[in-house]
Amino acid sequence: MCCSSSIARDKATMGEPEAFDISAVKGMKFFDPHVHMTSRTTDDYQAMADAGVVALIEPAFWLGQPRTGLDSFRDYYSSLIGWERFRSSQFGIKHYCTIGLNSREANNESLAEQVMEILPLFIYKEGVVGIGEIGFDDQTAAEEKYYRLQLELAKEAGLPVQVHTPHRDKKKGTQRSMDIALEHGLDPYQVIIDHNNEETVKEVLDRGFFAAFTIYPFTKMGNERMVEIVKQYGAERIMVNSAADWGISDPLAVPKTAALMKMRGLSDQDIELVTYRNAITAFAQSGQIDEADFNAQADLTEKFEGNTILRGGQQPRPDKSSIIIS
Q: PANTHER family, alphabetically (predicted)?
């Protein structure tokens, strides 16, 4: 009863949804610079590849429940540079990641101290294009301590920084994140401030940082608002991502936003900057991104440590129109 009432309310508020016509963006390439594929299915990978996503960045983040030990972090970071990278390659999508201690978990200081010791073992690995996602959540003293330490780590490694900005008191948290980054001597052109909205975008751009926007249902940005932001501020140093994770989110947020921008009259050049080029410009400062790698065909004979996604000799594209699952 509660759910049906909720759906009815949403339709009354938002109107009937407009269908996503993938042909509107046919032939375009997309780069999703923030998506948590560990939490997603093979169907999501396939849908992203079909919609034109050729590369993505998976930031280290919170898995939804508290961790109980250092080995959980070690295994997770290993999967970001290992198994998940392989899984993505099986759909022809180039996988990169950022490695870091996220703000929520920085508040477990005894564990955070241990995590800081192993981060240098991972940040120099192939496919790691930045330190992230780091920053503030509740804006505690512990969060600030580990944010500062990781900014120093990024500076030492010469890597871009992917900054998570808080959902609560966002403007203050965003300003504080930028102030501290500058205090540590980082070039704002190497810092990507994420999860922006109308309240933060002007100052982020004015101060020379990259401004990332997360198109995420109900809690962050809608893509109609995103269209208006690009119309007002232009496309320079702006990028969009899905941040699709274990919550109710959409791994096609980037191509859908591109399609909406096209429908609303934005130029192909601006769409390309916001949904592809600017993310490459920002994270290629790591020295790890080469667009020539994006066109690699998936080699389905490959295995990762003896494992494959094609279990038992499966075909990569099951026939979803059939009721028979053989």
A: HYDROLASE TATD
Residue 130 domain flag: yes
Q: State which amino acid sits at residue 100.
A: G
Close Cβ partners of 200 (under 8 Å, ≥ 6 residues apart): 165, 170, 171, 174, 193, 211
**CATH code of 267's domain:** 3.20.20.140
Tell me, yes or no, whether 8 lies in a domain.
no
pLDDT band, very low/low/confident/very high, at 295 (cuts 50, 70, 90): confident
Spatial contact of 196 and 211, defined as CB atoms under 8 Å apart? yes
Q: The sheet that has 161-164: what strands, in order across it?
A: 30-32, 53-59, 94-99, 128-135, 161-164, 191-193, 210-214, 238-241
| pLDDT value of residue 91 | 93
Structural domain contains residue 86: yes
Show the domain range for 273: 26-289
Domain count, the chain: 1
Angle between helices 141-157 and 109-118 in degrees, nearest 10 = 0
Q: Distance from CA of residue 247 to its chain's centroid?
A: 14
What distance in Å separates the CA atoms of residue 204 and residue 222, rounded to the nearest whole number? 19
Torsion of CA 293, 297, 300, 304, to 10 degrees: 0
H runs (alpha helix) in 184-286: 201-206, 223-233, 253-263, 268-272, 278-283
The answer to whether position 258 is within a domain reads yes
Residue 187 confidence (pLDDT) above 60: yes
Give the DSSP H or E segment for 71: helix 70-81
Q: Are 152 and 184 in contact (CB under 8 A)?
A: yes
- The strand pairing partners of 161, in sequence order, are 131, 191
- Residue 131: CB atoms within 10 A of its CB come to 28
**Which tens digits make up the pLDDT trace of 5-36?**
444 445 555 556 677 888 888 899 999 999 99
